């Protein structure tokens, strides 16, 4: 093979490898099931062991772990209208969220590992309450209500106290 062809082949491989890597990193890691609406303090999305800070407007994907710092809080709205508000020092996994907007069928499972979360349910819990569950290290909560707070290994300050102190405009916590 001539030196020109080898250089051309090497250049092509390097460029195509770079393009492939660029495409892979820009591609979303999962289907968007919701959106971060309000972020306060330190909030991260952990996926495949990689922790990345989030901002308002960022996507929420199924099987993503949402983690807040000591002064952090996050409000997430899901496709069915469910609102999740995580308090400080919270670790929660959106383990399962499937929702068909045409039939309003689906499943929801939130694993709350630590901290507290306020849940204002959307259409999925209204139509299929038996398929809407919140799980903690010590229990599984079957949801029959529309607005509730769950705490697991609670931090020093409970979520309802934090919300009253830090959220001046309570309309943001509602749908």
From TrEMBL:
Keywords, ordered alphabetically: Signal
FecR protein domain sequence ranges: 65-152
Cross-referenced InterPro entries: FecR
Signal peptide: 1-26
Record has S-adenosyl-L-methionine as a keyword: no
PROSITE patterns for this protein: PROKAR_LIPOPROTEIN
Classification via Pfam families: FecR (PF04773)
Keyword flag Cell wall biogenesis/degradation: no
PANTHER family the record matches: LIPL45-RELATED LIPOPROTEIN-RELATED
The protein's name in its UniProt record: FecR protein domain-containing protein
């Amino acid at each position: 093979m001539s030196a020109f062809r080898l250089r051309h082949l090497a250049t092509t491989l390097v460029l195509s490898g770079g393009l492939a890597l660029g495409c892979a990193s820009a591609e979303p890691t999962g289907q968007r099931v919701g959106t971060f609406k309000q972020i306060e303090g330190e909030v991260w999305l952990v996926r495949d062991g990689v922790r990345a800070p989030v901002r308002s407007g960022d996507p929420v994907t199924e099987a993503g772990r949402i983690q807040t710092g000591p002064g952090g809080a996050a409000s997430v709205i899901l496709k069915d209208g469910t609102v999740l508000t995580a308090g400080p020092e919270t670790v929660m996994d959106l383990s399962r969220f499937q929702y068909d907007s045409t039939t309003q069928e689906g499943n929801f499972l939130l694993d709350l590992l630590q901290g507290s979360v306020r849940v204002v349910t959307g259409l999925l819990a209204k139509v299929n309450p038996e398929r809407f569950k919140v799980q903690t290290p010590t229990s599984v909560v079957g949801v029959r209500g529309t607005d509730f707070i769950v705490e697991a290994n609670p931090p020093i300050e409970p979520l309802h106290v934090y919300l009253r102190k830090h959220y001046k405009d309570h309309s943001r916590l509602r749908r």
